[in-house]
Design a protein that fits this description.
Elements lengths: L1 E3 L13 E3 L7 H40 L9 H27 L6 H33 L4 H24 L7 H33 L5 H19 L3 H16 L11
Antiparallel strand pairs: 1-2
């Protein structure tokens, strides 16, 4: 009678060979003991390379989960629009800095004001607001929800575009021409006064209701459309590029350091 025994050096590429029993009358207890050893060690030895590889995969997977590596998180439509409002609000801070410098008779390059208005025109009016007007506002109008608010927001989009064009027209000569300086200051102040409550109302009233008006499929499709349009207009990482441009303007205007806004 033969049984399969695992002895040192007898494992060859995961195979066990048959080994004759040392005595034909091996006791039942010895047989059970030897069989138990086989059951105990064979799976561990045979599976060790695969287990080690699998363990590494688990560790790498956990690392990716923690760091976010290998997993691209989808930005929802409201999140996308709200972070774009963040870019807008930072431009408003640049406008405020320009107003303060004009009032204090402090010199600065008016090209910084022009560049700020160009970001508003290109990123806010021609992309962000067009997204709202094409994808967001019609859904509320079709559902007959918040229609008065949507109408006001749409009117403010049109007004904002007119103000931005005025800023672009008055800014270049604002350092040397007192009349141009007064005009551009008035336009910047009007823009700030309108857009702070405009963005806040969208963020806290309109956008939170969007998920109730569209299906899950429409919600995800809208997010994909936003991303495609952003890439089409600004290339990869369009939002990041715009945020970086605003940061450069903040640095040039001396308002980049966030600590300066902390009350003492």
């Amino acid at each position: 009678m033969q049984v399969v025994l695992l002895k040192h050096g007898q494992l060859n590429h995961g195979q066990l060979r048959e080994v004759p029993m040392s005595h034909p009358h091996t006791s039942k207890r010895t047989f059970i003991k030897e069989a138990s050893l086989i059951a105990l060690f064979t799976p561990a030895i045979i599976a060790r390379p695969a287990f080690a590889q699998d363990k590494k995969g688990v560790v790498e997977t956990l690392k990716d989960k923690v760091t976010g590596k290998g997993e691209e998180k989808e930005v929802t439509p409201p999140e996308d629009l709200m972070r774009e409002h963040g870019v807008l609000d930072r431009v408003l801070l640049v406008y405020e800095a320009c107003i303060h410098k004009f009032a204090a008779k402090q010199e600065f390059d008016p090209a910084l004001l022009t560049q700020s208005a160009m970001i508003v025109r290109d990123f806010i009016h021609d992309y962000h607001e067009e997204s709202e007007e094409h994808y967001i506002f019609p859904r509320f109008q079709q559902a007959n929800q918040l229609t008065e608010l949507v109408g006001t927001l749409l009117d403010q989009h049109h007004a904002g575009r007119r103000v931005t064009e005025n800023i672009l027209r008055f800014a270049p000569n604002s350092r040397t021409d007192a009349d141009m300086q007064q005009r551009v200051t008035t336009q910047m102040a009007a823009f700030i006064t309108m857009y702070r409550p405009h963005a806040a109302r969208e963020d806290t009233v309109l956008f939170p209701q969007l998920g109730k008006l569209v299906s899950t499929h429409e919600y995800h499709a809208m997010a994909e459309d936003f991303e495609k349009e952003e890439h089409k207009k600004f290339g990869e990482d369009g939002f990041e590029k715009m945020a970086a441009r605003v940061a450069q303007l903040e640095q040039a205007m001396g308002i980049y350091d966030l600590k300066q806004f902390t009350p003492t």
